[in-house]
Design a protein that fits this description.
It is a single chain. This protein has 79 residues and is α+β, with helices and mostly antiparallel strands. The chain has a domain of 52 residues. The chain has one helix and three strands, in the order βββα. Strands 1-2-3 form a three-stranded antiparallel sheet. A hairpin with a 2-residue loop joins β2 and β3. The longest helix has 26 residues. It is elongated.
């Protein structure tokens, strides 16, 4: 992915987003809104995935760290 910031002929700021052979041009405000949406949706998907693994509490509001080791159930002898 390539992101290019430029000025159009009328001096408006634009952002060109290229992925492979496809390219899309956004005005700076459009791109900012688009990118914030991408970040927010990515955060939601990552949180849901980590919750499904049991690495995050399910909407409990507790402030737990992501680097906590997952507790594995078993006999305690590694099996």
């Amino acid at each position: 992915m390539t992101v290019t910031f430029a000025l159009r002929d009328d001096r408006r700021r634009v952002v060109q987003l290229a992925l492979g052979s496809e390219m899309r041009t956004f005005e700076l405000e459009e791109f900012t809104e688009f990118w914030l949406t991408v970040i927010e949706e990515g955060r939601k998907a990552t949180s849901a995935y980590l919750e499904s693994l049991g690495w995050l509490p399910r909407h409990s509001g507790k402030d737990e760290r992501l680097d906590r080791h997952r507790v594995r159930e078993g006999k305690g002898d590694g099996s």
